[in-house]
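Lecture 7, part 2: worked example. A protein chain together with uridine-diphosphate-N-acetylglucosamine.
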Amino acid sequence: MSKMDVMLVVGARPQFIKSAPVIKEILSKHREIDLSIIHSGQHYDQQMSEIFFRELKIPAPLVNLQAGSGSHATQTAMMMKGLEGLMLKTKPHMVMVPGDTNTTLAASLAAVKLAIPVAHIEAGMRSGDMTMPEEINRKLADHCSTLLFAPTQTAVCNLKKEGLGKATRLTGDTMVDVLHTVVPFVQLKQDTMLERLELLPQDYVLVTLHRPSNVDNLNRLREILTALRKVAKRLQVIFPVHPRTRARLAKLGAFSSPKNGRITFMSPQGYIEILILLKNASCLLTDSGGMQKESFLLHVPCITLRSTTEWPETLIGKANQLLFKPEMIPKAILEIAFNEKLKQTITSLRNPFGDGHASGKIARILKETL
Ligand code: UD1
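Predicted complex, written out as C-alpha coordinates:
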Protein backbone atom coordinates (compact mmCIF):
# COMPACT_ATOMS: atom_id res chain seq x y z
CA MET A 1 0.00 0.00 0.00
CA SER A 2 1.36 3.43 -0.88
CA LYS A 3 1.80 5.90 1.96
CA MET A 4 -0.47 8.90 2.48
CA ASP A 5 1.34 12.21 2.80
CA VAL A 6 0.01 14.52 5.50
CA MET A 7 1.56 17.94 6.02
CA LEU A 8 1.08 19.29 9.54
CA VAL A 9 1.65 23.05 9.75
CA VAL A 10 2.46 24.65 13.10
CA GLY A 11 4.14 27.91 14.03
CA ALA A 12 2.97 29.40 17.32
CA ARG A 13 3.34 28.23 20.90
CA PRO A 14 -0.17 26.80 21.48
CA GLN A 15 0.03 24.86 18.22
CA PHE A 16 3.10 22.92 19.32
CA ILE A 17 1.22 21.87 22.47
CA LYS A 18 -2.00 20.88 20.69
CA SER A 19 -0.17 18.94 17.96
CA ALA A 20 2.27 17.02 20.14
CA PRO A 21 -0.04 14.08 21.01
CA VAL A 22 -1.37 13.83 17.44
CA ILE A 23 2.18 13.64 16.09
CA LYS A 24 3.07 10.98 18.65
CA GLU A 25 -0.03 8.95 17.81
CA ILE A 26 0.55 9.04 14.05
CA LEU A 27 4.26 8.27 14.28
CA SER A 28 3.81 5.39 16.71
CA LYS A 29 0.66 3.72 15.40
CA HIS A 30 0.01 4.75 11.80
CA ARG A 31 2.93 3.78 9.60
CA GLU A 32 0.74 4.20 6.52
CA ILE A 33 0.70 7.97 7.10
CA ASP A 34 3.83 9.85 6.10
CA LEU A 35 3.72 12.90 8.34
CA SER A 36 5.81 15.97 7.59
CA ILE A 37 5.96 18.73 10.19
CA ILE A 38 6.34 22.24 8.81
CA HIS A 39 7.14 25.22 11.09
CA SER A 40 5.94 28.55 9.74
CA GLY A 41 8.43 30.42 11.93
CA GLN A 42 5.71 32.61 13.47
CA HIS A 43 7.26 32.04 16.90
CA TYR A 44 11.04 31.94 16.82
CA ASP A 45 12.36 32.70 20.32
CA GLN A 46 13.82 29.70 22.11
CA GLN A 47 11.27 30.09 24.94
CA MET A 48 8.35 30.43 22.49
CA SER A 49 9.23 27.52 20.20
CA GLU A 50 12.24 25.24 20.70
CA ILE A 51 11.55 24.50 24.36
CA PHE A 52 8.18 22.97 23.44
CA PHE A 53 9.71 20.69 20.82
CA ARG A 54 12.20 19.52 23.44
CA GLU A 55 9.81 19.11 26.38
CA LEU A 56 7.04 17.48 24.36
CA LYS A 57 9.50 15.35 22.34
CA ILE A 58 8.24 16.64 19.00
CA PRO A 59 10.55 15.68 16.11
CA ALA A 60 12.35 18.63 14.51
CA PRO A 61 10.33 20.19 11.70
CA LEU A 62 11.24 19.20 8.17
CA VAL A 63 11.27 22.86 7.14
CA ASN A 64 11.13 26.15 9.04
CA LEU A 65 9.78 28.89 6.79
CA GLN A 66 11.02 31.63 9.14
CA ALA A 67 8.09 33.91 8.43
CA GLY A 68 8.73 35.74 11.71
CA SER A 69 6.81 38.76 12.99
CA GLY A 70 5.10 41.54 11.10
CA SER A 71 1.67 43.04 10.55
CA HIS A 72 -1.08 40.43 10.21
CA ALA A 73 -1.19 40.76 6.42
CA THR A 74 2.57 40.67 6.03
CA GLN A 75 3.03 37.73 8.37
CA THR A 76 0.17 35.72 6.82
CA ALA A 77 1.33 36.53 3.28
CA MET A 78 4.92 35.48 4.03
CA MET A 79 3.69 32.15 5.37
CA MET A 80 1.27 31.57 2.49
CA LYS A 81 4.00 32.18 -0.07
CA GLY A 82 6.38 29.74 1.61
CA LEU A 83 3.68 27.14 2.20
CA GLU A 84 2.34 27.32 -1.34
CA GLY A 85 5.81 26.63 -2.73
CA LEU A 86 6.23 23.70 -0.39
CA MET A 87 2.78 22.27 -1.14
CA LEU A 88 3.35 22.52 -4.88
CA LYS A 89 6.65 20.71 -4.48
CA THR A 90 5.59 17.94 -2.10
CA LYS A 91 1.92 17.57 -3.13
CA PRO A 92 0.54 16.30 0.21
CA HIS A 93 -2.73 14.34 0.23
CA MET A 94 -3.89 16.44 3.16
CA VAL A 95 -2.83 19.51 5.13
CA MET A 96 -3.55 19.47 8.85
CA VAL A 97 -3.66 22.66 10.95
CA PRO A 98 -4.34 23.15 14.66
CA GLY A 99 -5.87 26.11 16.47
CA ASP A 100 -6.54 29.66 15.39
CA THR A 101 -3.31 31.53 14.77
CA ASN A 102 -2.13 33.33 11.65
CA THR A 103 -0.26 30.11 10.81
CA THR A 104 -3.59 28.22 10.89
CA LEU A 105 -5.11 30.72 8.47
CA ALA A 106 -2.12 30.82 6.12
CA ALA A 107 -1.87 27.03 5.85
CA SER A 108 -5.58 26.42 5.33
CA LEU A 109 -5.91 29.17 2.72
CA ALA A 110 -2.78 28.10 0.82
CA ALA A 111 -3.98 24.48 0.78
CA VAL A 112 -7.62 25.04 -0.18
CA LYS A 113 -6.53 27.25 -3.08
CA LEU A 114 -4.44 24.37 -4.39
CA ALA A 115 -7.42 22.02 -3.92
CA ILE A 116 -5.60 20.10 -1.17
CA PRO A 117 -8.03 18.88 1.53
CA VAL A 118 -7.60 20.57 4.92
CA ALA A 119 -8.15 18.99 8.35
CA HIS A 120 -8.62 21.43 11.22
CA ILE A 121 -7.79 20.40 14.80
CA GLU A 122 -9.80 22.38 17.39
CA ALA A 123 -12.50 23.33 14.92
CA GLY A 124 -15.72 25.12 15.84
CA MET A 125 -14.57 27.39 18.65
CA ARG A 126 -16.38 30.74 18.57
CA SER A 127 -16.09 33.77 20.84
CA GLY A 128 -18.49 35.80 18.68
CA ASP A 129 -15.96 38.64 18.68
CA MET A 130 -14.74 39.37 15.16
CA THR A 131 -12.32 42.03 16.45
CA MET A 132 -10.13 39.15 17.67
CA PRO A 133 -7.64 37.97 15.03
CA GLU A 134 -8.16 34.41 16.29
CA GLU A 135 -11.92 34.51 15.64
CA ILE A 136 -11.29 35.51 12.03
CA ASN A 137 -8.64 32.81 11.67
CA ARG A 138 -10.70 29.98 13.15
CA LYS A 139 -13.83 30.82 11.14
CA LEU A 140 -11.97 31.01 7.86
CA ALA A 141 -9.95 27.88 8.61
CA ASP A 142 -13.15 25.95 9.39
CA HIS A 143 -14.74 27.04 6.13
CA CYS A 144 -11.63 25.99 4.15
CA SER A 145 -11.61 22.52 5.72
CA THR A 146 -12.99 19.17 4.63
CA LEU A 147 -12.41 17.56 8.04
CA LEU A 148 -13.30 19.37 11.24
CA PHE A 149 -12.07 17.87 14.50
CA ALA A 150 -14.31 19.44 17.16
CA PRO A 151 -13.11 19.36 20.77
CA THR A 152 -16.50 19.77 22.45
CA GLN A 153 -20.24 19.40 21.87
CA THR A 154 -20.52 23.22 21.81
CA ALA A 155 -18.04 23.29 18.94
CA VAL A 156 -20.11 20.69 17.07
CA CYS A 157 -23.24 22.87 17.48
CA ASN A 158 -21.35 25.97 16.28
CA LEU A 159 -20.18 24.15 13.15
CA LYS A 160 -23.67 22.79 12.43
CA LYS A 161 -25.09 26.32 12.69
CA GLU A 162 -22.65 27.40 9.98
CA GLY A 163 -23.64 24.51 7.70
CA LEU A 164 -20.47 22.52 8.39
CA GLY A 165 -22.07 19.58 10.21
CA LYS A 166 -21.18 16.97 7.53
CA ALA A 167 -17.43 17.55 7.84
CA THR A 168 -17.52 17.61 11.66
CA ARG A 169 -16.27 14.85 13.98
CA LEU A 170 -16.43 15.13 17.76
CA THR A 171 -13.01 13.98 18.93
CA GLY A 172 -12.40 15.72 22.25
CA ASP A 173 -9.60 18.15 22.91
CA THR A 174 -5.98 17.17 22.27
CA MET A 175 -4.95 19.47 25.12
CA VAL A 176 -6.44 16.93 27.55
CA ASP A 177 -4.25 14.24 25.95
CA VAL A 178 -1.09 16.29 26.28
CA LEU A 179 -1.93 17.34 29.82
CA HIS A 180 -2.26 13.67 30.84
CA THR A 181 1.18 12.85 29.47
CA VAL A 182 2.84 15.82 31.17
CA VAL A 183 1.26 15.58 34.65
CA PRO A 184 3.81 12.99 35.92
CA PHE A 185 6.66 15.39 35.01
CA VAL A 186 4.81 18.21 36.74
CA GLN A 187 4.61 16.10 39.91
CA LEU A 188 8.26 15.18 39.62
CA LYS A 189 9.61 18.68 39.12
CA GLN A 190 7.24 20.90 41.06
CA ASP A 191 8.95 20.89 44.47
CA THR A 192 12.32 21.88 43.01
CA MET A 193 10.82 24.63 40.88
CA LEU A 194 8.71 26.15 43.67
CA GLU A 195 11.70 26.02 45.99
CA ARG A 196 13.92 27.75 43.44
CA LEU A 197 11.36 30.53 43.03
CA GLU A 198 10.72 30.64 46.79
CA LEU A 199 7.01 30.05 46.24
CA LEU A 200 4.53 28.25 48.47
CA PRO A 201 1.56 26.40 46.95
CA GLN A 202 -1.69 28.43 47.02
CA ASP A 203 0.23 31.54 48.00
CA TYR A 204 0.37 33.47 44.73
CA VAL A 205 -1.68 34.46 41.71
CA LEU A 206 -0.41 33.50 38.26
CA VAL A 207 -0.86 36.13 35.53
CA THR A 208 -0.47 35.73 31.75
CA LEU A 209 -1.55 38.44 29.30
CA HIS A 210 -0.77 38.80 25.61
CA ARG A 211 -3.98 39.66 23.72
CA PRO A 212 -3.67 42.81 21.60
CA SER A 213 -6.93 44.04 23.21
CA ASN A 214 -5.21 44.08 26.61
CA VAL A 215 -1.60 44.91 25.91
CA ASP A 216 -1.45 47.01 22.74
CA ASN A 217 -3.29 49.98 24.26
CA LEU A 218 -0.81 51.45 26.73
CA ASN A 219 -3.52 53.21 28.77
CA ARG A 220 -5.31 49.94 29.34
CA LEU A 221 -2.07 48.14 30.10
CA ARG A 222 -1.16 50.86 32.63
CA GLU A 223 -4.54 50.32 34.35
CA ILE A 224 -3.91 46.58 34.46
CA LEU A 225 -0.46 47.14 35.97
CA THR A 226 -1.91 49.46 38.61
CA ALA A 227 -4.47 46.78 39.48
CA LEU A 228 -1.76 44.11 39.74
CA ARG A 229 0.25 46.32 42.10
CA LYS A 230 -2.85 46.53 44.33
CA VAL A 231 -3.24 42.74 44.25
CA ALA A 232 0.46 42.35 45.13
CA LYS A 233 -0.13 44.11 48.45
CA ARG A 234 -2.17 41.07 49.53
CA LEU A 235 -0.93 38.22 47.37
CA GLN A 236 2.27 37.58 45.49
CA VAL A 237 1.93 37.98 41.69
CA ILE A 238 3.86 35.70 39.31
CA PHE A 239 3.85 37.03 35.76
CA PRO A 240 5.62 35.14 32.93
CA VAL A 241 5.72 37.79 30.22
CA HIS A 242 5.02 37.10 26.53
CA PRO A 243 7.39 39.00 24.17
CA ARG A 244 4.53 41.19 22.86
CA THR A 245 3.63 42.18 26.43
CA ARG A 246 7.27 42.63 27.45
CA ALA A 247 7.80 45.24 24.74
CA ARG A 248 4.70 47.22 25.84
CA LEU A 249 5.47 46.96 29.58
CA ALA A 250 9.01 48.18 28.91
CA LYS A 251 7.53 51.27 27.25
CA LEU A 252 5.66 51.94 30.50
CA GLY A 253 8.90 51.57 32.46
CA ALA A 254 7.18 48.76 34.35
CA PHE A 255 10.17 46.56 35.04
CA SER A 256 12.24 49.03 37.03
CA SER A 257 9.45 50.59 39.09
CA PRO A 258 9.75 50.47 42.89
CA LYS A 259 5.93 50.27 42.96
CA ASN A 260 5.96 46.63 41.78
CA GLY A 261 6.28 45.22 45.28
CA ARG A 262 5.60 41.50 45.18
CA ILE A 263 5.19 41.24 41.40
CA THR A 264 7.71 38.84 39.86
CA PHE A 265 8.11 39.26 36.10
CA MET A 266 9.76 36.31 34.36
CA SER A 267 10.47 35.00 30.84
CA PRO A 268 7.85 32.90 29.05
CA GLN A 269 7.91 29.44 30.60
CA GLY A 270 8.09 25.99 29.06
CA TYR A 271 5.02 23.74 29.15
CA ILE A 272 5.93 21.73 32.24
CA GLU A 273 6.99 24.90 34.08
CA ILE A 274 3.82 26.84 33.31
CA LEU A 275 1.71 23.88 34.43
CA ILE A 276 3.66 23.70 37.71
CA LEU A 277 3.02 27.40 38.26
CA LEU A 278 -0.64 27.01 37.38
CA LYS A 279 -1.35 23.86 39.39
CA ASN A 280 0.06 25.43 42.55
CA ALA A 281 -1.44 28.91 42.13
CA SER A 282 -4.33 30.09 44.26
CA CYS A 283 -5.89 31.46 41.08
CA LEU A 284 -5.13 32.55 37.51
CA LEU A 285 -5.62 35.87 35.73
CA THR A 286 -5.27 35.40 31.97
CA ASP A 287 -6.47 36.30 28.51
CA SER A 288 -5.20 33.10 26.89
CA GLY A 289 -7.62 30.53 25.48
CA GLY A 290 -5.48 27.53 26.37
CA MET A 291 -4.79 28.66 29.93
CA GLN A 292 -8.54 29.02 30.60
CA LYS A 293 -8.90 25.36 29.72
CA GLU A 294 -5.83 24.20 31.60
CA SER A 295 -6.93 25.99 34.77
CA PHE A 296 -10.34 24.31 34.44
CA LEU A 297 -8.73 20.89 34.04
CA LEU A 298 -6.37 21.48 36.98
CA HIS A 299 -9.20 22.86 39.16
CA VAL A 300 -7.68 26.32 39.59
CA PRO A 301 -10.15 29.24 39.64
CA CYS A 302 -9.66 31.62 36.75
CA ILE A 303 -10.44 35.24 35.88
CA THR A 304 -10.33 35.93 32.14
CA LEU A 305 -9.60 39.52 31.32
CA ARG A 306 -11.88 39.66 28.29
CA SER A 307 -15.55 40.22 27.60
CA THR A 308 -15.95 37.00 25.60
CA THR A 309 -14.55 33.49 25.56
CA GLU A 310 -14.37 30.78 22.92
CA TRP A 311 -14.45 28.26 25.80
CA PRO A 312 -17.90 28.88 27.40
CA GLU A 313 -17.70 25.41 29.00
CA THR A 314 -15.17 26.80 31.48
CA LEU A 315 -17.71 29.28 32.87
CA ILE A 316 -19.68 26.48 34.59
CA GLY A 317 -19.76 26.77 38.38
CA LYS A 318 -17.82 30.05 38.13
CA ALA A 319 -14.64 28.05 37.47
CA ASN A 320 -13.81 30.82 35.02
CA GLN A 321 -15.21 34.36 35.20
CA LEU A 322 -15.06 37.00 32.50
CA LEU A 323 -14.00 40.45 33.62
CA PHE A 324 -13.30 43.39 31.39
CA LYS A 325 -12.59 46.36 33.65
CA PRO A 326 -9.01 46.42 34.99
CA GLU A 327 -10.05 48.33 38.12
CA MET A 328 -12.18 45.32 39.13
CA ILE A 329 -9.19 42.95 39.09
CA PRO A 330 -8.10 43.25 42.76
CA LYS A 331 -11.59 42.59 44.16
CA ALA A 332 -12.22 39.71 41.76
CA ILE A 333 -8.86 38.05 42.46
CA LEU A 334 -9.10 38.34 46.23
CA GLU A 335 -12.65 36.95 46.14
CA ILE A 336 -11.61 33.72 44.43
CA ALA A 337 -8.04 33.25 45.69
CA PHE A 338 -9.12 32.27 49.21
CA ASN A 339 -12.57 30.84 48.39
CA GLU A 340 -12.46 27.21 49.54
CA LYS A 341 -16.10 26.59 48.64
CA LEU A 342 -15.50 27.67 45.06
CA LYS A 343 -12.45 25.42 44.87
CA GLN A 344 -14.47 22.44 46.08
CA THR A 345 -17.18 23.13 43.50
CA ILE A 346 -14.63 23.41 40.71
CA THR A 347 -13.01 20.13 41.67
CA SER A 348 -16.33 18.31 41.29
CA LEU A 349 -17.20 19.69 37.83
CA ARG A 350 -17.53 17.34 34.87
CA ASN A 351 -14.80 17.70 32.24
CA PRO A 352 -16.43 18.56 28.89
CA PHE A 353 -13.16 18.45 26.94
CA GLY A 354 -12.93 14.71 26.40
CA ASP A 355 -11.26 11.64 27.85
CA GLY A 356 -7.67 12.20 26.77
CA HIS A 357 -7.99 10.05 23.63
CA ALA A 358 -8.70 12.81 21.11
CA SER A 359 -5.43 12.23 19.23
CA GLY A 360 -6.20 8.53 18.73
CA LYS A 361 -9.60 9.43 17.26
CA ILE A 362 -8.08 12.12 15.02
CA ALA A 363 -5.43 9.73 13.67
CA ARG A 364 -8.01 6.99 12.99
CA ILE A 365 -10.42 9.35 11.20
CA LEU A 366 -7.53 10.74 9.17
CA LYS A 367 -6.50 7.26 8.09
CA GLU A 368 -10.05 6.24 7.16
CA THR A 369 -10.58 9.43 5.17
CA LEU A 370 -7.31 9.16 3.30
C1 UD1 B 1 -0.04 34.38 18.61
C2 UD1 B 1 -1.47 34.02 18.20
C3 UD1 B 1 -2.34 33.86 19.45
C4 UD1 B 1 -1.70 32.92 20.46
C5 UD1 B 1 -0.29 33.40 20.75
C6 UD1 B 1 0.41 32.51 21.74
C7 UD1 B 1 -2.13 35.03 16.08
C8 UD1 B 1 -2.98 36.05 15.41
N1 UD1 B 1 -2.08 35.06 17.39
O1 UD1 B 1 -0.07 35.68 19.19
O2 UD1 B 1 -3.58 33.33 19.07
O3 UD1 B 1 -2.47 32.91 21.63
O4 UD1 B 1 0.43 33.41 19.51
O5 UD1 B 1 1.62 33.06 22.09
O6 UD1 B 1 -1.56 34.20 15.41
N2 UD1 B 1 7.56 37.80 19.34
C9 UD1 B 1 8.83 37.55 19.78
N3 UD1 B 1 9.30 36.28 19.71
C10 UD1 B 1 8.57 35.27 19.21
C11 UD1 B 1 7.27 35.52 18.74
C12 UD1 B 1 6.79 36.79 18.81
O7 UD1 B 1 9.53 38.44 20.25
O8 UD1 B 1 9.07 34.11 19.19
C13 UD1 B 1 7.01 39.17 19.46
C14 UD1 B 1 7.16 39.98 18.23
O9 UD1 B 1 7.44 41.30 18.60
C15 UD1 B 1 5.80 39.94 17.61
C16 UD1 B 1 4.88 39.81 18.81
O10 UD1 B 1 5.64 39.07 19.76
O11 UD1 B 1 5.53 41.04 16.82
C17 UD1 B 1 3.59 39.11 18.54
O12 UD1 B 1 3.81 37.86 17.92
P1 UD1 B 1 2.72 37.25 16.90
O13 UD1 B 1 3.22 35.98 16.34
O14 UD1 B 1 2.30 38.30 15.92
O15 UD1 B 1 1.44 36.98 17.77
P2 UD1 B 1 1.25 36.56 19.30
O16 UD1 B 1 0.91 37.78 20.06
O17 UD1 B 1 2.37 35.72 19.80
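The first strand starts at residue 4 and ends at 10. The radius of gyration is 20 Å. Keep this in mind for problem set question 3.
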